[in-house]
Amino acid sequence: MRSLALLVALAALVALPFATTGYVVYLANLLLTFTVICLGMHLVLGEAGQFSLAQAAFYGIGIYTSGLSGAAFGWPFPCSVLAAGLVSAVVGLLIGGLALRMRDIYLALATFAFGEAMQWVLMDWTSVTGGPNGLHIAPARLFGLQLLTDKQAYPAVLVIAILMLGLAILLSRSRLGRAFRAVRESEVAAMAMGVPVKSTKLIAFALSAFFAGVGGGMFALYSTYIHPDSLGFQTTILVLTMVVVGGLGSIAGAVGGAIVFGLISELLRQTPSYQEVIYGLILIVFMMFAPKGLFAFLGESFGRLRRA
Fold first, then answer.
1. What is the DSSP string of 61-126?
2. CA nearest 60: which of 159, 129, 152?
3. Is residue 3 part of a domain?
C-alpha cells in the first residue's frame, strides 16, 4: 500500500503541469523547494539534535549564489544549483565550527545571530546583491534553452527534489545517520561507542546548509526576483514550524509539514503582520499536545478509533 501510494503521488506530480494553471505549478515549485529546505532542517535538528536557526540564511546564500553565477558566468542550471549547495555548505562548515562549541539555547542564539547578520549583509552589499532594491534573477539555462515559465522550470525542480529526498533517506539509513541519532540521544554515550561527536555535529550542520543552498538554487529556477526581506526570521520560523509540527525526527514528517504549512503560508500571504504570531501559536500548541508531530498524532488518533 505504501509503494502504491508513492507511485500514485509520483504520477500526480508528473501530470501536474498538464492539468493545472500557472499559479498552481508555481505553488508546486514552492512546496518542493520548502521540502528540500525542511529535509536539511530535519538532518541537523531531527537527526542530530542540534538546534539551528540559520536555515533561512543558507537558503538566501543559495539563491544569490545560483542567480549570480548564472548571470555572471552563464552556467547551466545544474552547475549553478550545485554551486549554491556547495557554497552554503562551506559557509555552514565555517559557522558550524564556531557555533557548535555551544549547546542548546546558546547554539540557537548563535545561529539566529548569524541569520540576522547574513540578512544585513545581503541588504547592504549593494554592488553584489542589489541591496534594498533586490536582485533580478536571470532565467536559468540548459543547452542554450531558457526556463522562462513555472511550467518549464517544474520538471527540473521536481527532479532535484526527488534526488534530494533520496539523498536524505540514504543518509538517514547510513552509518552516518546512526551516528547523528546517537549524538542526538546522548553525546556521552556516543563518544563511549567511538562516535566522533564534534565532527559528526559539524557534518550535520554542513549537510543541512547544503540542502538549504540547493533549495535556494531551486528557487532561482522559477523566480525572477529576490529581496533580502523575504530571508529573515519569518522564513526561519516557517521552516522550523514545518519540521516540528510535521514530526521531528521523521523524513515523512518533514515532507508533510513542508506541504501543509507551505499551503498555510500562501493562505496567510494577505496577513503578513500576523504570520509569525500564528506560527508561534501553532508551535506552542503542538509542542504541548502533540510533541511527536501532526502525522504521528493523526496516526495515533486513527489507531485509537480503530481499536474502539
1. HHHHHHHHHHHHH---HHHHHHHHHHHHHHHHHHHHHHHTTS-HHHHHHHHHHHHHHHHHHHHH-H
2. 129
3. no
Over the stretch 27-48, which tens digit does the pLDDT of each residue have?
A: 999 999 999 999 999 999 989 8
Q: Span 13-30, mean pLDDT?
A: 84
CA distance 253 to 242: 8
Measured in whole angstroms, how far is the alpha carbon of residue 202 from the centre of its chain? 18
Helix residue ranges per DSSP H, the chain:
2-19, 22-41, 55-73, 77-99, 104-124, 126-129, 150-173, 175-185, 187-192, 197-222, 233-247, 251-267, 275-289, 294-307
Taking only the tens place, the pLDDT of each residue in 58-81 is 999 999 999 888 777 778 888 999
Closest CA to 66 of 166, 119, 135, 168: 135
pLDDT tens-digit map of 114-150: 888 998 888 888 888 888 888 888 888 777 778 878 8
Tally of structural domains, the chain? 1
pTM here?
0.90
Alpha-carbon distance of 104 to 209, in angstroms, equals 19
In a domain, 167, yes or no: yes
Q: What domain range includes position 42?
A: 22-231
Within a domain: 195? yes
CA distance 145 to 150: 14
* Dihedral of alpha carbons 217, 221, 223, 225, sign: positive
Is residue 120 one of the residues assigned to a domain? yes
Quote the pLDDT of residue 35: 94
